[in-house]
Amino acid sequence: MPSFSPEQQAYLVETVTRLGLDRAFRPAAAAPPPESVHGTPIEDLCREELRKHETHPCDLWEAMEDWTRRGVMAEGLDQFLLRHWGFFNVEPADSGYMCRLRIPGCQLRGDQMIALARIAETRAGGFAHVTTRGNIQLRNIAPGDVLATHFALREAGLSCHGSGADSARNITTSPTAGFDAAEIADLRDQALALGEHILHTRALQGLPRKFNVAFDGGGAVSCVADTNDIAFQAVRIGHGGALAPGIYCRIGLGGITGHRDFARDTGALCRPEDAARVATALLHVFVEHADRTNRKRARLKYLLEAKGLDWVVARAEEKLEARGIALLRQGTEHDAPRPAIDRQGHVGAHDQADGARYLGVALEMGRLSPEQMRLLGRLALEEGRNDLRLTVWQNVLLPHVPSHRTEAVRGELARAGLPTTATAFAAGAVACTGKWACKFGLAQTKADGTALVRHLSERFTLDQPINIHLTGCPNSCAQHYIGDIGLMGATLPEGGEGYMIVLGGGTDADEQLARPLTGPVPAAEINATVETVIGAYLDRRAPGESFLAFVRRLPDASLPSLLDRGIAA
Fold first, then answer.
1. What is the 3-state secondary structure (H, E, C) of 438-462?
2. What is the pLDDT of residue 29?
């Protein structure tokens, strides 16, 4: 059969193409890839991730203006987005919004505390609470006052943006940073740098889940860094290793005690001045690879379990390499011992490195009235270089008080209901909001904790502190697993309020999760139950033995004996 000439071939191609017959002979085009979020198909996203995909939390301003103008509460997944801006719909547990501030490094000025007192009086419920992340919460904010509250905070140089929902929560540092004679490094600048970077980086807002970062400079007051997703621990390294002697930060990952885990040592270190950028790189790894299909497994702990600690660190190192930053490696054999933590260093009068003193004010479950806030602000301005610190123990530090003014300032604080002394039970007692004003709470933690501390303080005088942590639900905002005594709200079989009780938790040098004792115990019986435990400890302990050491030497099978003081250990 004769072949077609070039002219005939060109004519046939033109004709077939014009008639569309060539489509029958083309290979099937690959289907476009499904739309995804960091590799997760849209149809596989959990409902919160889908809502964030539809409306990024940063793009909520127009809706906020509309809700405020109409005086209506955000609900459902809209309320989930609004939490990113710091406003929480806690109805029906409490009226109006709860507003959680963002105070990087847990440091604010005296004039800012005075401004907060005014906001608490005019826009909120007439009080404030210090939180377990060294932060402040306001309550009972009317829906029509949301933007007014936002602007009042901004005028004071404060913010609530990025303090809730899937955000990097308040970044903590050692509360005595900068004036602690024992500290290894002042890491406040790193906390501030990281906080600013997060708030000005769209990709780091609307994370797969909430995220906690802490910078421990090695001072006398703990910020429980090992309970955080990222923990930087300042260390002093001596001669004899691969690294030059000096100060570095060891990096731990995956702390989340509500899920029964502490931050794990990565084996990596960085220079203190690089810590914020290291945290940023790790946050980007979390954003890109964490589970967006299952909220229960969306925390960093579960990414570490899925990919491995070394894999996560390696991905962060790839990002850091582009910035000219290298993580370092060396074992702990040349680390100097961490300075001892003073378990009551956040309460009372203590010497500073410069000869001045700081005063730790004891608060009942973190509560402050506007009058007390104004007094703290004024004293900071007049006596303390306009500096205030908040702690994870839900109290306030007033630094830089001249030594000769210490007793006068303590007296003025005490007359306002702000004592700088506390019993062994009151000093370390912390509680989340609980059922009083949180829709997740299963028990009245604030009221029950206050009553319990007063009850124990009336009956016992101890030579060593006992930390009591009360949390209203398994979310463990007050971290019951790290308390000497931990109480977690629970529902009784018949439907009433109660608590599960755990014993022997601790952080830092005492790091260990508390072990179950009993529960659920009716809330009405919790005072008597804990009193029995304390009595058994005092009856059976070795001379000078701490409560923590005592319960830790008891095997699991012997713990229930603490509920019966008549049984010898």
1. CCCCCCCHHHHHHHHHHHHHHHCCC
2. 47
The reply to whether omega before 92 is within 30° of 0 (cis) is yes
Which residue type does 299 have? R
Beta carbons of 258 and 476 less than 8 angstroms apart: yes
230 close to 214: Cβ distance less than 8 angstroms? yes
Phi/psi at 400 (nearest 5 deg)? 65, 25
Task: Supply the pLDDT for residue 139.
Answer: 96
Segments of the chain with pLDDT less than 50: 1, 24-27, 29, 31-32, 567-569
| Bridge partners for 390 per DSSP | 396
3-class DSSP assignment, residue 480: helix
SS3 385: coil
Q: How many other C-beta atoms are found inside a 10 Å radius of the C-beta of residue 127? A: 18
- CB atoms under 10 Å from CB of 325, counted, come to 17
Buried b (16+ CB within 10 A) or exposed e, 172-187: bbbbbbbbbebbbbbb
42-48-54 Cα angle (round to 5): 55
> Which residue in this structure is represented by tokens 């910035």?
323
Structure tokens at 23: 């489509």
> How many Å apart are CA 497 and CA 294, to the nearest integer?
29
Tens digits of residue pLDDT in 36-49:
899 999 999 999 99
Say what the pLDDT of residue 8 is. Answer: 61
pLDDT on residue 25: 46
Give the model's pLDDT for residue 17. Answer: 53
Contact 506, 548 (CB under 8 A): yes
Q: 217, 171, 216, 224: which is closest to 198 by C-alpha?
A: 171
DSSP 211: B
Q: 72-106 b/e with 16+ CB inside 10 Å = b?
A: ebbeeebbbbbbbbbbbbbeebbebbbbbbbbbbb
Does the predicted TM-score (pTM) go above 0.70? Answer: yes
3-state secondary structure 129-148: EECCCCCEEEEEECHHHHHH
Residues 6+ apart with CB under 8 A from 147: 64, 65, 68
DSSP label of 478? T
Alpha-carbon distance of 20 to 35, in angstroms, equals 30
DSSP 241: S
Q: What φ, ψ does residue 217 adopt, rounded to 5°?
A: -85, 0
How many other CB atoms are found less than 10 A from the CB of residue 378?
15
Transcribe 503-556 into DSSP letters: E--B-GGG-B--EEEEEEEEGGGHHHHHHHHHHHHHHHPPTT--HHHHHHTS-G
pLDDT the model gives residue 24: 47
φ, ψ of residue 442 in degrees (nearest 5) = -110, -5
Asked if 441 and 435 touch (Cβ cutoff 8 Å), the reply is yes
| Long-range contact pairs involving 545-548 (C-beta distance under 8 Å, separation at least 24) | 546/464, 547/464, 547/466, 547/484, 548/484, 548/504, 548/506, 548/510
Residue 481 and residue 508 in contact, taking contact as beta carbons nearer than 8 Å: no
- What six digits make up the tokens of 40? 């997760």
> How many Cα atoms occupy the beta-carbon half-sphere of 227 within 13 Å?
30
